[in-house]
Design brief:
Layout (H helix, E strand, L loop, with lengths): L4 E8 L5 E9 L12 E8 L24 E8 L2 H10 L18 E9 L1 E6 L2 E6 L3 E5 L3 E4 L6 E9 L13
Antiparallel strand pairs: 1-2, 3-4, 4-10, 5-8, 5-10, 6-7, 6-9
């Protein structure tokens, strides 16, 4: 599971002096109740790129949708299909017959993803590419899903930048 990360934010105060604005521990959260082994650690979020020092309020529910120009920087723990199947069963949910169709979604964003550890398959429509530690991908508003049918979870660093929404696609809702 993801360990807390120390986040230090710097900025410029009203007297135009450089300063440390905050120094805190950021914990991971599980956006899906039915499989909490999937975790996100949101390191920073801003809608006023690049000037804002505001992060997403803790009381606002997480959503994968970003306003145009918003930026999200996070670490993701992508569990194995075995972990997810166990937790889905425990939650009384159906286990997918085809993981390549499970949780297909798209975001109106450009995503920059660097694999920190492990391996994972990215499915983009009918195409499959396996990513491993040290690989980097730029994903631009594609319909996709992730499948980790390996023995270990995959950890990746992701920066998302919101772009103009497409009216031709559906949206995934995070519960």
């Amino acid at each position: 599971m993801l360990k807390p990360t120390r986040r230090i934010v710097t900025g410029v105060d009203t007297k135009n002096n450089s300063t440390i604005v905050s120094d805190e521990l950021i914990k991971a959260f599980a956006p899906y109740a039915s499989y909490p082994c999937f975790q996100i650690q949101e390191l920073f979020y801003t809608q006023d790129n690049p000037q804002s020092l505001q992060t997403r309020p803790a009381t606002k529910p997480y959503t994968i949708d970003l306003p145009v120009g918003a930026m999200r920087f996070m670490i993701v723990r992508m569990p194995t299909t075995k972990e997810m199947a166990t937790e889905l069963k425990q939650a009384g949910q159906a286990v997918p017959d085809d993981w390549k169709k499970f949780n297909l979604h798209n975001t109106d964003s450009v995503d920059y993803i660097y694999i920190l550890s492990g391996k994972i398959s990215l499915i983009v429509d009918d195409e499959v590419v396996t990513l491993k530690t040290g690989d980097f991908i730029t994903q631009i508003a594609t319909t996709h899903t992730w499948v980790n049918d390996n023995d270990e979870p995959c950890y990746f660093l992701c920066a998302m930048v919101g772009i103009k929404p497409s009216e031709k696609r559906g949206k995934m809702v995070v519960e």
